[in-house]
Amino acid sequence: MVFRICFIWSSVKSPLGGTEYVMQNIINYIMQNQNSKYRVYVVDMSHKLKDNIKCAKDSDAVVLHSINPLLIKIPYLLTVNQKIIIDIHSPDWLWIYREKTYGIKPSRLTLLKRLMIGIFGKMLYCRSLNNFDYEYLSRMCKRAFLIPNPVDTKFFYPKCSKEDKFTILIRYDPSFKGGFDIFLKSLKNVKDIIHNSKVMLIGTREVSMELLSTLRRFTKVDVFVKAPREQLPCLYSRSHVTIIPSRFESFSLIALESLSSGTPIIMSRLPPVSWYLIEIRDGSPGTGMSFNPGDPVDLASRVRAFYDLWLNDKKTYEESTRLARRVAERFDISNVVPQYLKMIEEVINE
Description:
Elements: E1 3-8, H1 18-33, E2 38-43, H2 49-57, E3 61-65, H3 68-71, H4 74-78, E4 83-87, H5 96-102, H6 108-120, E5 124-128, H7 131-140, E6 143-146, E7 167-171, H8 180-186, H9 191-194, E8 198-202, H10 209-216, E9 220-223, H11 232-238, E10 241-244, H12 253-260, E11 265-268, H13 273-276, E12 288-291, H14 296-312, H15 314-329, H16 333-349
Helix pairs in contact: 8-14, 12-15, 14-15
GO molecular function: glycosyltransferase activity
Organism: Vulcanisaeta souniana JCM 11219
Domain Glycosyl transferase family: 176-310
């Protein structure tokens, strides 16, 4: 049997972020390993509605990216009696975590999204990236699947040696979700450490001179925003720790990319950490440390603990870098994509 799959996605040929690279990895895996078993069609946001409907008609199942511009096509796609899987990458897609944790009321667009799921949910299949979302989607959708994202461990690996000076890598994301403000507030509590350390910034947002001046009052800063993707494995592996201060996340590919490159993480204690974070404690190696979401004082305590570990317990730190790599390998494309394809097969065969 040949399984015909229509992927309706954001840009895949010219990836803009992690979600596009995930889809690129899935398609490449199919082409390289299972080409005779699957026939794949891909349309993106630039295609017209009639192209989406044709793709759906010619397939056994549709996999739809969860971004808002594509969700409005669901009622039209259902008219062709096609099985639809919503692949939910958007962080806190229905704003349930934000509302419960921070008391943030959902936007009008999110309320419309909730209404849409209320109307069409039992006709849709949903793929979730963490247990928190899975719990809700299991009640809202016809069937929900809990499958992590893959990481390309052949691309992300310990490519470069660690810096001599204690080095922190962090993605610059000024949004409420990104939590960079939490990192900034934490610095005043680790002035003695950070003064002799270095911070490397990655990301896609431009960094203002005002922000750089603020950071450089505390520490040395190297800026690699908009760096070519090919540079990322070396940047990760040169660092001693990657900080992920997000207020909410669906999965965090940055976490996996860092671990795969042999660099442990400090991350907000969010639902996705159950996949890959093993706490480093009392001389016992792990993949990183977690802190209370939105708490700069707790983040600062973890930065201090990590610095002390790197400085005074090299053995545990080095064992943690190796464990980080081993844990990331569980999420390699070759392990995760077959789970993803099995999900599609199960939906088609229902």
